Amino acid sequence: MRKLPIYFVLDTSESMVGEPINAVVQGLVTMLGVLRKDPYALESAYLSVITFGTEAKQLVPLTELSQFQVPKLILGSGTSLGAALLLLEKRIAVEVTKSTAQVKGDYKPLVFLMTDGEPTDRWETIADKFLKNRSLQLVAIGCGPDTNLNTLRRITELVITGAEANQETLAKFFKWVSASVATASQSVDKTGESKISLEKFPQDDNLKIVEETTPQQKTEPNRFVFMHNKCIKTKKFYIQKFEKSGQQTGGFFGLGKKNKYTKAGVFPLDDFEQLSSSGGISISTELLDSTNPCPYCGNESWALCSCGKTHCSPEIKDAKKSLTLTCPWCNTTSDYGIVDSFSVGGGSG
Ligand SMILES: [Zn+2]
Ligand SMILES: [Zn+2]
Q1: Ligand 2 center–CA 291 separation, angstroms
Q2: Which of 92, 99, 71 minimizes the C-alpha distance to 12?
Q3: pTM of the model
Q4: How far apart are CA 328 and CA 330, in angstroms?
Q5: Is 95 helix (H, G, I), strand (E, B) or coil?
Q6: Please, are residues 149 and 216 in contact by the beta-carbon 8 Å criterion?
Q7: What domains appear along the chain, each with residue ranges and CATH number?
Q8: Cβ–Cβ < 8 Å for 252, 271
Q9: How far is the CA of 161 from the centre of ligand 2 (A)?
Q10: For residue 303, which ligand has an atom nearest its CA?
Q11: Which of 115, 163, 223, 272 measures 20 to 30 Å from 146, CA to CA?
Q12: pLDDT tens for residues 91-133?
């Protein structure tokens, strides 16, 4: 039986926290429901999931459709796209049977790659290899205003862009993926080849095919800041997301009002992978114009320990007094006072 291998290569960087990552999981679940009703897909389709955040991982090895289960996607710092492409190449070499003169191998693998940001590792050389690789078909979808289209174009000619990595965009994308896989698994019998084309892609304001001439989006790498916190009471991890508000209203030389950051959500997470040295940007707390209470205990403030990590904290009411707290990261007990500002963030998209 010739397999039709389908690989999902998914960005699990921290900027996917909240709606984006939930929408990806929901998209996979819906797609699975559709494909399992399709006799052609059931006969030939095999699925695998590779994720890339702090590092690249194959969460599900190539598995037949009827046995496949949507894995739990764990977010992390970083966008290790290069590592994901390398891993993909390795797994295809192991899991997909190549055709030889004697043996008819599996069909050409279909790869759906989804990302919302800039890679943080060395990806260029490996991407160039992929563009030349004719033994697989790769469709890349870049979701959100911060996707670097040039990066995706360097990997594949089939690039789609989604306005936002939200429920609506990703639902449409996965609906199209389901239809493409269904068509591919039907046509493989006739033509002996699996093929994905963007011809029937449902373009709209939200989802667009990227042409060679499509200009690069104006990415704003400092649009979001992610703060890694732990709750002082439960010691559990959560992410605070801040979004740059307003435009640079600077004068002639860009002097003028600084951009402030507004709270854009708080996300309690059971699992999260952190880079030992965090990339990404950090900003001064002076730029934060609002803050989220701790999602576990409701503490309104947060504090910086001398270990360099932040955690939730009761508010210091009297500026002259200090609080004795135990940091949930390093377990050191010390006195905390009020300081003017410190820098937070440093997580990367
Ligand atoms: Zn707390
Ligand atoms: Zn500490």
Answers
A1: 21
A2: 71
A3: 0.88
A4: 6
A5: helix
A6: yes
A7: 4-209 (3.40.50.410), 224-345 (no CATH)
A8: no
A9: 41
A10: 2
A11: 272
A12: 999 999 988 888 888 999 999 999 988 888 888 888 888 888 7
